[in-house]
Write a structure and sequence with these properties.
alpha/beta, seven-stranded parallel sheet, 8 helices
Length: 235
């Protein structure tokens, strides 16, 4: 799947359970190394259902202190089931040494959430010890969606803007909300980056992003940025 010159590594698993088990071991090892070296681990974690078993296994490992933020957030109240913060906190609740910080204000207001996230990230400039990204069937990563009006700002590789407000176009019917998203430049400011994908459709999108120089999907921008990515896929 990977071109011979690719800096990336592709991991294929028999099923989602095998992927979750191995990826949880990878996260646990990264956190252990970070805590040994810097007294804490600092993570950016994808939302959505697929990585939740990974987070539950990480919590069960009993490591700490670990601090994390979502890679992106829907502008909904923190109590809303659609809120990535809510899902992450539930999945990681087994370990009180893990703190998940919000990208949005409590009521999800987009304007105030953008101000909050910009201010908070400016005070936490250290590189992430690990970033875990998901990918949509449309090739989006975090909440950097094809067709968003300010996608070019979100995909710019020069550091400066760590977070943007994003409105997918069209809005996904299953989650029709504006978003707050880390930019590609901030996501790349990391010691390790892992990309998680499941299903044949996403494998096709990954193949296109890796092999087609004319592919303009957000995931292609990630894979062309020059930073080695660990890609994890299962059927």
């Amino acid at each position: 799947m990977l071109p011979a010159s690719s800096p990336h590594t592709f991991h294929s698993y028999a099923d989602a359970d095998a992927l979750a088990a191995q990826l949880a071991q990878t996260l646990t090892a990264a956190c252990h190394a970070a805590i040994d070296a810097r007294r804490r681990a600092w993570l950016a974690l994808a939302g959505g259902r697929t990585p939740l078993p990974v987070y539950a296994r990480l919590a069960a490992a009993g490591l700490g202190p670990i601090e994390a933020i979502p890679t992106d957030e829907r502008c909904v109240p923190h109590s809303d089931p659609a809120c990535n913060l809510h899902q992450l906190r539930v999945a990681l609740a087994g370990n009180p040494e893990i703190t998940v910080h919000p990208l949005t204000c409590a009521d999800g207001d987009p304007v105030r959430s953008l101000d909050l996230s910009r201010t908070w990230l400016a005070r936490h400039p250290a590189p992430f010890d690990l970033v875990l990204l998901g990918m949509g069937n449309d090739g989006h990563i975090a909440s950097l969606f094809p067709g968003a009006a300010n996608l070019s700002e979100g995909l710019a590789l020069e550091r400066g803007t760590d977070v943007i407000a994003s409105v997918p176009d069209p809005l996904p019917p299953e989650a029709p909300y504006p978003r707050i998203s880390l930019t590609l430049a901030r996501l790349l400011h990391a010691r390790a980056i892992h990309l998680l994908a499941t299903g044949q459709r996403k494998r096709q999108v990954l193949t296109q992003a890796l092999t087609d120089p004319q592919c303009h999907l957000p995931v292609a921008a990630l894979l062309r940025a020059g930073t080695p990515i660990q890609i994890h896929w299962s059927p």
